[in-house]
UniProtKB/TrEMBL annotation:
InterPro entries: Anhydro_N_Ac-Mur_kinase, ATPase_NBD. This is Anhydro-N-acetylmuramic acid kinase. Keywords: Kinase, Transferase. One of its GO terms (molecular function) is ATP binding. It comes from Epilithonimonas mollis. GO terms for biological process: amino sugar metabolic process; peptidoglycan turnover. It comes from the Bacteria. Gene3D superfamilies: 3.30.420.40. Transmembrane segments: none annotated.
Amino acid sequence: MKNQDFFAIGLMSGTSLDGLDICYAKFFNNGSIWSFEILQCETLPYSSELENELRNAIHLSSEELLKLNSEYGFYLGEKTEEFILKNKITELDLIASHGHTVFHQPQNRFTLQIGDGRAIKSKTKRTVIYDFRSQDVIFGGNGAPLVPIGDELLFPEFDACLNLGGFCNISLKAEEKRIAFDICPVNIILNDLALKLGKKFDENGDFARAGKIDELLLNKLNQLPFYTQSIPKSLGLEWVHEYIKPLIQNHGIENLLATFTEHAAVQIVKVIDDYGIKNILITGGGTYNSYLLEKIKAKTKTIIQIPEKEIIEYKEALIFAFMGVLRSLDLNNILSSATGSFFDHSSGLIC
């Protein structure tokens, strides 16, 4: 490939419902080496109405879900166009949208991220690439995690990359292959519990720090079958409702936060140590949970790297922008070694 610059916007909405992440970045290809520069980024908090709609989308009828898919697509388009105008963006090759995950059942060969890309295009009049996960599931994969291609090509200096989002996932090199998988739920549970205390999240893990670990509950959580399943594997909201929610009923909220924070740290460190990781990059909203990070650091000798704020908060949106660039070039943007699909492939619908 000839040396070339690409300008792209990545849109990301995570399961923790922190808001819409928008990242405008420049990607440069120098032969086989990729580099990037984040030019502008912003998180747009959801209105309480939209947040509730997205949170409860799993319970909608098919007709209501189709309506939300369209409405949310127009919302993404409007907010992206506002971002483009506000930042006076003139160089833009494409918009890549992850959408918002409602269903994720790779075992049943389907996954659904709402936010119709055609609606985004109608508002922005730009090339839009969306629905990155479905093809991988059709090809026998988990449809997740997808960010390992970005870890491999944009962050090669780290042994592993860990994302502390709604779910925690990891990407690392093992036997010359990039593997990746979900480790455990994190913010999807911690944020939900914090809401019961009147906060959107447990700032610095202060509620958890004030609680007491319930050893019996911790044991039950650590013994969930998912943690002994072979990789590749991924988690979804359905799994949380089936396995986690029934276990955490009828407990004090602060004690639950303390126990689940400990649970997450135990599962994360188990993976880090099992793979002998020497240094690891940690990003995602959970990076600001100082109590969780203290727990992780206390249990492992691995060198933990915390990057600048832009990478902490926008790494996933950045990588989806990059995946859009790769898709536009018809280059592989999904690794079968990470998702379990039949082969590496180039995924995403181009509108």
